[in-house]
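Subject: for your reference before the review

Hello V.,

The reviewers asked for a structural picture of the protein, and I figured it would be easier to keep everything in one thread rather than splitting it across files. Below is the amino acid sequence we used in the manuscript, unchanged from the supplementary table.
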Amino acid sequence: MKHLSKKIVACMAIIAMCCFGCKANTSSSEVSSSSQASVPKVKTTKKATAKTAKQPEQAAITNPQINVVVVSSNKMKRDITNLVVVPKQYLDSDKEQYPVVYLLHGYDDNYMAWQNHINLAELASKYGMIFVCPDGQDGWYFDSPIDPSFQFETFITQELRNYVEQNYRTINDAQHRAITGLSMGGHGALWLGWRHPDLYGSCGSMSGAVDIMTLKDRFKIDKRLGKYAANTQSWRDHSVINLVPTLKNGEQNIIIDDGTQDFLIKENRALHAALDKHGIKHSYSERPGRHSWDYWVKSLTMHLDFFAKHF
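And here is what came back from the structure prediction:
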C-alpha cells in the first residue's frame, strides 16, 4: 500500500509539472503574438528611412512600393503620417529619377484615403510617377492664423517636400512636380499650387470646395479661421477662388473638373468663369457624377494623363 501511495504521489507531481509547462508556453506564445501584432511591418524602398505609424490600415501593407512615413513638423511641433508610393521600376534600378504627384484627400479622411479606393502602386508603375499622400487631417491645407498646430501649407510645401526629395529619387523642379486633390483636397491643391508656382508646375482639383465662403462654419473651417461672421476677411483671403486675380496666364498647367450632380458644382462653374474672365488658360470639364469615390477614381486617371503630358 505504501508503494502504491508513493507511485500515486509521483504521478501527480509529474502531471502538475506538465500542466505548468504547458501554461508557461501558452503565456509566452500569447505575449509574443501580441507584441508582433502591435507593430505592423511596413515595407520601404532602399532610399527611404520610414518610421511606422500606429494606424490599423498599415497591417495590410506588404507591397514594397508602398511606404508609410512619419515626418516631424517643426512648425506644428508634432509628427505627421504620410503615404509614399513608388513605381515598380523604381525598385529595379537605383539610378533613375521620377516626377512627383501630391494627392490630397478630402474632409474627414486621412493619408490612406486614395490607397483605400484605388491601386496606387499599379498607377505609379503605369505612369512612372511617385505619389505622395499627406495626412492633411481637417486642416484645409493652409496655415491656420489661429491654431499653430494646423500649419499644413508650410508642412506640405517645405517639410514634407524636403523629406521626400532627400529620401527618394525625385526630379526636383517645378515642371516635374504636380499637386491635385478632391473636395477639401481640391481646394488645397489649388491653394498650394497657385500660391507656390515655383514649386508646382501643374495643379488640379476634383470636386473642389473652391469657395469656402459658401460653407459658412461647416466642415471645421471655423476651427482654422474663426467664426465666419467675426472673421469674414480671413475667410475671403483663404478662399482659393479669390486667388484667381493673382495668377499669370501660362505659368502653370491647370486642370479642374466636377460632377454635374455635385453639391459644389456652382462654385466650380464660378471658378471656371473667373479663370476665363482673367484670361487664365486651364482645362475644365464636367461629367455625370456626385460627390463620391466613383467619380474621383475616374478623375484621377484623367488628371494623371494631363500631368504626364507636361512632365
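For the response letter, the relevant points are probably these. Confidence is low (pLDDT under 50) at residues 1-56. Residues 2-37 form the longest helix (36 residues).

Happy to draft the paragraph if you're swamped.

O.
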